[in-house]
Amino acid sequence: MLDWIIQPLSLTFMQRALMLGILLGILCAVVGSYMIVQQMGMLAHAISHSVMAGLPIAYVVGIALSFGALIAGVISALMLYLIESRSRVKTDAAMALILTSFVAIGVTLVSIIPGANRIDLLHVLFGNILGVTMKEVWWTLAVTVVAITLMRLFFKELLFYTFDPKGAQASGMPVHFYNASLIIAMTVTIVVCLPTVGALLVVALLVAPAVTAYLLVKELHQMMWVGSIIGSLSSVIGMYLSYYLDAPSGATIVLVAFCFFCLAFLFSPSEGLLVSFWRKHMRSRLSMPS
Fold first, then answer.
1. Cβ proximity of 260 and 208 under 8 Å
2. pLDDT band at 149 (very low <50, low <70, confident <90, very high)
3. Predicted confidence band at 100 (pLDDT cuts at 50, 70, 90)?
4. Are 231 and 29 in contact (CB under 8 A)?
5. Are 233 and 260 in contact, with CB atoms under 8 Å apart?
6. What does residue 38 show for φ and ψ, rounded to 5 degrees?
7. Phi and psi dihedrals of 40, rounded to 5?
8. How many Cα atoms sit within 13 Å of 42 on the Cβ side?
9. Contacts of 88 (CB under 8 A, 6+ apart)
10. Largest Cα–Cα distance in the chain?
11. CA–CA dist 207, 33 (Å, integer)
């Protein structure tokens, strides 16, 4: 058993992948907790695909692909917010429009811009955590520390805005600033996750640990702590399963996170399906005449 745990740790790429996976588990849980409470899950889905529009431009200009993805993601999110708030178009329709349009922009630019076809779209879509560098690990650590620090400093304001946006606006809080800040935080997290799980699976990494914690605890700060543990465990267990089963790392991590959700859905002390069924069964037995 000990050899089974130690053997992958002797490989440098596994060490980097595990460090990055733990950091992403924490980062995604912190940002994802606000995202779940704000019902922004589909927004993250739209942003994760919209970032593709910025990749070919960044490649041609000669800047980091992640910077181009960040700009495209923020623009798509702000466009979505503008359409939703300034027109009769519903959120789901606006999301579908923005998602498909930005993906179309990315695919078109890759085809027509000279040299842009060198971008590995499969890597963008599915990620490759085994190929991360220490530079990406340090970048992820910096983003995680900044995110946790900002969330801690503005926790009370964000808590008020998250659960009572109308009350926050009536009290004079800059709600548009907080909304834009959460969108930017979500976009940065998505961009950081792209090398790991790719655009297709990044939403699951953001949602699964946070929504699992949502079934287990009641308070927002508890969601962050529990979600961070679940996210980190999902990354570590998923990496080990990927190593020994020779399976795709990103998909394996997401499937492990989904298994944690299924366990919480069935056995959560307050929300679990089987637990609720057992309680109803016991109450019915106790109420039966002897």
1. yes
2. very high
3. confident
4. yes
5. yes
6. -85, 0
7. -110, 20
8. 13
9. none
10. 83
11. 8
- The single residue listed with the structure tokens 């008020």 is 160
The encoded tokens of residue 240 equal 């080990």
Q: DSSP states of the chain as a string? A: -HHHHHHHHTSHHHHHHHHHHHHHHHHHHHHHHHHHHTT-HHHHHHHHHHGGGHHHHHHHHTS-HHHHHHHHHHHHHHHHHHHHHHSS--HHHHHHHHHHHHHHHHHHHHHHSTTGGGS-HHHHHH--GGG--HHHHHHHHHHHHHHHHHHHHTHHHHHHHHH-HHHHHHTT--HHHHHHHHHHHHHHHHHHHHHHHHHHHHHHHHHHHHHHHHHH-SSHHHHHHHHHHHHHHHHHHHHHHHHHHT--HHHHHHHHHHHHHHHHHHH-TTT-HHHHHHHHHHHHHHHS--
Predicted TM-score of the model (pTM)? 0.84
Q: Are 199 and 187 in contact (CB under 8 A)?
A: no
Structure tokens that stand for 85 in this block = 């708030």
Q: 2-287 — its CATH code?
A: 1.10.3470.10
The two three-digit tokens of residue 191, written as one number: 């961009």
Domain boundaries, the chain: 2-287
Interval 88-97: pLDDT, tens: 888 778 888 8
Q: How many CA atoms lie within 13 A of 92 on its CB side?
A: 0
For tokens 């999110």, what's the residue?
77
Distance from C-alpha of 212 to C-alpha of 217, rounded to nearest angstrom: 9
Residues in the chain, overall count: 290
**What pLDDT, on the 0 to 100 scale, is given for residue 289?**
62
Structure tokens at 232: 């980190």
